[in-house]
Amino acid sequence: MLRIPCPYCGERDYTEFTYGGDANQARPADPERVSDAEWETFLYRRGNPAGEHIEYWQHSFGCRQWLKVVRDTVTHDIITVTGPTAQREEKA
Ligand SMILES: [Zn+2]
Fold it and tell me: One Pfam match, by short name (predicted)?
């Protein structure tokens, strides 16, 4: 079972969290100036790494903070969790 150590609430079951996506992707600074191919890459192209992966997770049923989690996709070990400095916009 995947357990995520929230920096504010302590270790909790992953069911309290909402996966927020790949944290390796950076939104283009000026979306009006990127090509369609670059925009498509940002929106849809994702890696499928076996090993360490940086992800956004929101503690939806806890403190509601967005966290940046480094997780091993093979073993599901949580390697690091960082707090509010890793905030992102909440999905509408
Ligand atoms: Zn929390």
Answer: SoxD
